């Protein structure tokens, strides 16, 4: 059976996920949440508008993931706890996503060799 090579770096390099995952592992819990942005700034719907093109969308996503990282982590944690309290089978999905993020971070930008 032939092996399949998936260029993970091609998918993650545009949004800089590798560096984000590396910085997430290196910092303490207190330092990760020290830059929490106010809820009024995080949910400011007056500043939301449609991007003009794909490059602008990539730029916005990249900036927002870095700027609101702690807010997104808190929202994910709250949704995970709510989901676990209301649907125990969701635990499998959360473990799967978390493990996937960890394994992608372990690739360090190298291609994934399958088979």
Automatic annotation (TrEMBL):
InterPro entries: Prenylated_rab_accept_PRA1. Keywords: Membrane, Transmembrane, Transmembrane helix. The chain crosses the membrane at residues 65-82. It is a multi-pass membrane protein. One of its GO terms (cellular component) is membrane. It is found in: Membrane. Belongs to the PRA1 family. PANTHER family: PRENYLATED RAB ACCEPTOR 1-RELATED (PTHR19317), PRENYLATED RAB ACCEPTOR PROTEIN 1 (PTHR19317:SF0). This is PRA1 family protein.
């Amino acid at each position: 059976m032939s092996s399949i090579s998936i260029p993970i770096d091609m998918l993650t390099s545009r949004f800089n996920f590798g560096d984000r995952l590396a910085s997430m592992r290196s910092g303490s819990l207190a330092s990760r949440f020290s830059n929490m942005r106010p809820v009024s700034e995080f949910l400011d719907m007056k500043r939301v508008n449609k991007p003009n093109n794909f490059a602008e969308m990539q730029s916005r996503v990249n900036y927002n993931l870095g700027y609101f990282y702690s807010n997104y982590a808190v929202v994910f944690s709250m949704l995970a706890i709510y989901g676990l309290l209301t649907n125990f089978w969701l635990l499998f999905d959360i473990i799967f996503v978390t493990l996937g993020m960890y394994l992608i971070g372990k690739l360090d930008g190298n291609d994934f060799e399958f088979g």
